[in-house]
Amino acid sequence: MELTFDDAAIAKLSPMLGPDRQLLLTFEDGVGPYSQHAMIHMQVQFTLNIIPANVTPADYDVALASNLGPVRIKGYSQEDLDEHLTLRFKANMDVFTLSGDGGLIDGNVGLIDFTQQQK
Known about the structure:
This protein has 119 residues and is mainly β. The chain has one helix at 7-13; strands spanning 2-5, 21-27, 46-52, 62-66, 71-73, 84-90, 95-100, 103-113. The protein has 1 helix and 8 strands, in the order βαβββββββ. A hairpin with a 4-residue loop joins β4 (62-66) and β5. It starts with a strand and ends in a 6-residue tail after the last strand. InterPro entries: ATAP_core_dom (IPR000361), HesB-like_dom_sf (IPR035903).
């Protein structure tokens, strides 16, 4: 399984990343320290999370290869993902979208920088 970020997504995310940070692609099911509540959502929903590089959340047990480096996911969320994934940033709407081989997976992927909350 692999994840490709488009040029606009790379431009948006790169300034927020570095050797002291890592990316998670969180399946929003309410499980784990970086998942937001899932009780109001009836559809598949994902969020990009930026967390400190020295943290290894146990729930995020799979690393996807990407053109921005490894992106950790909850292994069981692979059921809702495709083999080839693309994350795009639509600047005019300020929104990320996640697509796979079968089409759109999530048309509004959130972004939460948990490293900013620690300051």
